[in-house]
Amino acid sequence: MNFKVLKSKIGFAAEVFGIDARQNVSQEHKIELTRLINEYAVIIFKNQKINDDQQIKFSENFGTIEPAGTNTELTKMKDRRLSLKMNDVSNLDKNNKPLAKSNQNRIFGLGNRLWHTDASFKKKPVTFSILSGRKVSAKGGETEFCDMRCGYKALSKEMKNKVENLIGEHSLQYSRGKLGFVMKDVLSKKELEKFKPVLQPLVRKNSITNRKSLYLSAHLGLIKGWELADSILFINDLIEICACSDYIYSHKWEENDLVIWDNTQVMHRGRYFNDQKEVRDVRRTTIAGTEMLIDQ
Questions:
Q1: Spatial CA neighbour of 147 closest among 239, 44, 54
Q2: Among residues 270, 256, 263, which one has the least CA distance to residue 287?
Q3: 91-141, pLDDT tens digit by residue?
Q4: In whole angstroms, what is the distance from residue 136 CA to residue 155 CA?
Q5: Average pLDDT for 49-66
Q6: How far is CA 188 from each of CA 44, 184, 195, rounded to the nearest angstrom?
Q7: What is d(CA 229, CA 234) in angstroms, rounded to the nearest whole number?
Q8: Average pLDDT of 198-212?
Q9: Most Cβ neighbours (<10 Å): which of 33, 57, 110, 250?
Q10: Residue boundaries of the structural domains of the chain
Q11: The whole model's pTM is what?
C-alpha cells in the first residue's frame, strides 16, 4: 500500500493505492489507514466496485457504524432504499427515480450543499464518514472538503484565545432552517424533541497528531451565552476563514470512488448538479463516536 498527498503544501487529502475494499483488511493496513486519516483528514480510493454489504464490512474496520437517522417520518421505513446502516445521500426515491423538486426529502437533503460536519448534532459526535460513488453525475456534484486545522492555524493569537473555550449549539434545525425547511412546521412535537441542540466545543484537538482544529458546521447555530445575531456573524466569519481556497480539496467523482474523511478535522459540502435530470447515487456509512465532548 502506498499513497500520494494531493494538497502537499498543507498536508491535506491523500489518494491511497493497493487496497481492495471488497477484501479483508489486514491489521497492518488497518493501522496505516487510520494513521493516514488522522494525518491527512481525507483519503481517496479509486476503482472500488463494492456493494452495500462490502462497504459496511470495510467500514467496520474503523469502529461501530452509526445507524441512519430515524428521528422523523419524512422517509418511512417502507420507502427506504437502503438498510439502516447506510445513509442515502442520493437524489433518488425508492424506485430509483429522481425526487421531485418540491419533495420534502429532496429539500431536506439539499442541506448537504452547505458546509457541514456529519452528525455534529449528536451528543457523541461521529468520527469517520465513508462515501462510495455508485453512480455519479456527468456535470457538477463534486464534494468539497476544507481543512479546519488550517482554519485554526490562520487565526490570530487573540482569536485563538477567544475561541478556545467557546461552546456551540448544534442542531439539524439550524442547518435546515437556512434552506427554509422549518422543522416545527413539518414535524410533530415528539419528533422535534429529538432535534434539541447539543453542545460541542468550538476547538478540538486530535489525540494522535496533537493538531488543533475548529469544529464548525451548518448545524452550528448559536454560541452558548451569546445573542443570536452575534453568534451567526461570528460563525460565518470562522467558516469563511476555513473555506479559503488554499485549504480546500475538491473531489471530482468518478464511478466507484470511495472516500473517507475525518469529521473531527474537516467540513465538507456537495456541489450543485441537475438533480432533476441526472442520477447521483452515493451511499455513506458513518462511524459512531464513543464519547461526549461536553456534558449536556
A1: 239
A2: 263
A3: 999 999 999 999 988 998 999 999 999 999 999 999 999 999 999 999 999
A4: 36
A5: 97
A6: 40, 7, 11
A7: 9
A8: 97
A9: 33
A10: 2-286
A11: 0.95
Host H or E run for residue 221: strand 220-223
* Other beta carbons less than 10 A from residue 33's beta carbon: 21
Contact of 39 with 207, CB cutoff 8 Å: no
Q: How many CA atoms lie within 13 A of 273 on its CB side?
A: 23
- In this structure, the strands spanning 281-286 and 203-205 are unpaired
Looking at every residue in the chain, the average pLDDT score rounds to 94
Using CA atoms, how far apart are residues 217 and 223, in angstroms rounded to an integer? Answer: 12
179, amino acid identity: L
CA proximity to 51, closest of 63, 42, 59: 59
H or E element at residue 147: strand 143-147
Please give the CATH number for the structural domain made up of 2-286: 3.60.130.10
pLDDT at position 75, please?
Answer: 61
What percentage of the chain has pLDDT greater than the value 70?
A: 97
pLDDT at 70: 53
Q: In sequence order, what are the residues at sequence separation of 6 or more whose Cβ sits closer than 8 angstroms to the Cβ of residue 232?
A: 221
How many whole angstroms separate alpha carbon 212 and alpha carbon 149? 6
